[in-house]
Amino acid sequence: MKLTNKTTIGEIVADDFRTAAIFTKYHIDFCCKGYRTIEEVCKKRDIEESELIEHIEKARNSSVNQSFDYKSWPADMIADYITKTHHRYIEEKAPIIIQYLTKLCGVHGAIHPELHEIHTIFSKSALDLTAHMKREELIVFPFIKKMKSAQSKGTPFEMPAFFSIENPITSLREDHITEGQRFKRIAALTNNYTPPVESCTTYKAAFAMLEEFDKDLKKHIHMENNILFPKAIELEKTFEKVS
């Protein structure tokens, strides 16, 4: 992919996930706001375009190989990967983190009142993400797989109840924005997941798990917003839908 100042951040990371580290370094949101161009983010962050492009190119030319070329995967395969990797991660880790945060609030909440807000935000996030994932697993992802199967067999597909895949995708993207804002607040409250000097092992473990959860969620959202959803929309356009 040729890189210009009109290239969007989402396209760059979708093409090579190694560039995600560059945008993270500059505090540029590549998942929820991946639609912005290099020109736009540089103007917003007061960064020299040539400087950012140079760092992106270095990352893309790095000798370190990408783990997977997700962009080359078919849409149904990406949907399965997200379900089995990122959805399962949330299901397994969220209850443990809530347990740790509950303990921290009880032991350290009086001295560190910010823990209560962190607990509230994360608990709400876990609840909403559960509902979000169910909508994907029960409605959106099966429809993507149905389209992919129809494409492979050369058969048409019926008009869905939501008329177009873009309708539920719009709602899912709005959820992603909400989660991005929540974790931005959690990062601020935790001083970017840095526990106090005097903190106990539970404190350190909770913050480390929160940071890992945040990183996994960013990759999760990026894969949906910048890779899966665009593929699904384009896939739908290849069909003449019938009722």
From TrEMBL:
Query: Which positions fall inside the Hemerythrin-like domain?
Result: 83-232
Q: Identify the main location.
A: cytoplasm
Entries under Gene3D superfamilies matching the protein = nmb1532 protein domain like, SP0561-like
What the entry lists under Pfam families is as follows: Hemerythrin, ScdA_N
Highest taxon, organism lineage:
Bacteria
- Is Transcription among this UniProt entry's keywords? no
**Which GO-annotated molecular functions does the record name?**
metal ion binding
Location in the cell reads:
Cytoplasm
Alphabetically sorted, this entry's keywords are: Cytoplasm, Iron, Metal-binding
Q: Does the keyword Cytoplasm apply?
A: yes
Write out the GO cellular component annotations.
cytoplasm
List the InterPro entries: Hemerythrin-like, RIC_family, ScdA-like_N_sf
**Name of the protein in question:** Iron-sulfur cluster repair di-iron protein
User: What's the source species for this entry?
Assistant: Flavobacterium crocinum
